[in-house]
Amino acid sequence: MDVHGRIREILAETIREELAPDQQHLSTEDLIKALRRRGIIDDVMKELNFVTDNVDQELPSSPQQPICFDRQSTLKKTNIDPTRRYLYLQVLGGKAFLEHLQEPEPLPGQVCSTFTLCLHYRNQRFRSKPVPCACEPDFHDGFLLEVHRESLGDGTRMADSTTMLSISDPIHMVLIKTDIFGETTLVASYFLEWRSVLGSENGMTSLTVELMGVGTESKVSVGILNIKLEMYPPVNQTLSQEVVNTQLALERQKTAEKERLFLVYAKQWWREYLQIRPSHNSRLVKIFAQDENGINRPVCSYVKPLRAGRLLDTPRQAARFVNVLGYERAPVIGGGGKQEQWCTLLAFLCRNKGDCEDHANLLCSLLLGYGLEAFVCVGTKAKGVPHAWVMTCGTDGTITFWESLTGHRYIHKPVNPDEPPLAEQPKPLYPYRTIGCVFNHQMFLGNCQPSDAVETCVFDLNDESKWKPMSEEAIKSVCAPGATTSLPPFPPLCASTIDASVASNEIEMQLRLLVSEHRKDLGLTTVWEDQLSYLLSPALASYEFERTTSISAGNEEFQDAIRRAVPDGHTFKGFPIHFVYRNARRAFATCLRSPFCEEIICCRGDQVRLAVRVRVFTYPESACAVWIMFACECAS
């Protein structure tokens, strides 16, 4: 029964007996021997029932999908490319997720909180099956990762041990918790160094990975994952563990040295910046920012040209996509100021929400991918609240601000403070007050104009009397791709997995039920007008089109159709509203808070007909814009 307890007692006893003062180390073999002597291992073996899985001979299905298998079934044969080398990573259960110690076993069919593991490795992304949150979550997934070098003519050859040893990209693992309402939280973010498998004799190795929390809890253990790594096909000549360890140590040393030199340079740059004006001390010049694991990284490393493939067509569509990703400030325990946490891109995308800096970094990366000259601006909004937004510089000198949280764009025309007081000055429409610095993947510039107010700011970035630049060489040494092993590579964007019409129908049906119930409580009957509901579709489509392109179209036809549909002597009222989540109850509660919408939903009168239309627009990464329109017609 209490096998763990008995093993612990015997190990403690063995350590006391066998550790003579001169012998400081017991190997695993010694401990196993001690357990064998006491007959514990035999007892345990008798109790276990094995299921035969021919894991070694066969490999699972489609490389890009998580390979999910039952304990009962053997793995399916897969369509893998025989000329490529693969790393088969299995996640075999979790342990010690102590926060979920008290969770009751979920009943069959009951909705419960779940854990999902997301992986990214060299342009490949995977997602595990969701498993119920528990102290020992039942992860059982396999992932087939292709290990391959494109450069130096290696494109056609299968990677051998030495080639693989030179591939320093880690496997980025992000653990997400989804609660019963569909809200996601980031639990842990971990970089797995997989190359230890190259030094194991049979090309297989098992690891226990301790996951640490994020943000303020980055020193606290969240839980442990059991992971098994296996090379496939097996490598002909394995490297000695010593060679692998030496290579990893050399890389760490090189990275640490580059980071140290950059830190020395940054301190020197900051001293020079303060010598221009002592008041610069209070400007928001952000050279380093903490990621979700509490590690300080240069801000330039959070931005990189990112191509969206065929998932997004235009820069404005990219801005719309970033705007529909949820906004959430980094969680903070207790009161106090803003907890700062810039997320790595994978953590931001998997959680599907993040702070303004995460949005600005992603938007800047996408705009750079579209070939624009884009920068992230760090400054403040009204009331001195720190904020980040994006700026693009046109070839004709036009400066455009992009607000990543709303998708709005503003043209910047500087106010000239030396003009006579009666001269006509441009009125700024943007919400930004001050600006401390701008940066992208190659440049970092501190604002050294007499005032840091955005409205008087001149964005001539080549003028060193207005913007103090950092050496591009110094930035490249720590932020260029592959410059240091500590930089997480950027994941590709994934297409949406949401079926827009199914999701639209589901939400619409739920809203009809909620409206009918709400009216029933008020003692009102509900009559739905299907044709009127259908006529609302063009309006919702044109609202989304306007958000994406800033062009309004198709409004005349919509108005014409409504005029024809509503009989003489009847009044039509409509209320459109927009959400970035798909929870119908939450949306309905928000709608009822608007007096105008409540008036439609609770409409009393003669011949009242109600209509509701929902249209879900999907974007990459299961982000979506949800437009809802409630309408009613009644005899006036």
From TrEMBL:
Question: Which GO cellular component term is one of those annotated?
Answer: centriole
Residue span, CEP76 C2 domain: 79-236
* Phylogenetic classification of the source organism: Eukaryota, Metazoa, Chordata, Craniata, Vertebrata
Task: Name the source's superkingdom.
Answer: Eukaryota
What task does this protein carry out? Centrosomal protein involved in regulation of centriole duplication. Required to limit centriole duplication to once per cell cycle by preventing centriole reduplication.
In which broad location class does this protein mainly occur, judging by the first location in its UniProt entry? cytoplasm
Indicate what this protein is called per its UniProt record: Centrosomal protein of 76 kDa
Subunit structure comment from the entry: Interacts with CCP110 and CEP97.
Q: Which organism is it from?
A: Carlito syrichta
Q: Does the keyword Cytoplasm apply?
A: yes
All copies of the CEP76/DRC7 peptidase-like domain together span 340-470
Q: Which family does it belong to?
A: Belongs to the CEP76 family.
| Stretches assigned to the Centrosomal protein of 76 kDa C-terminal domain | 497-634
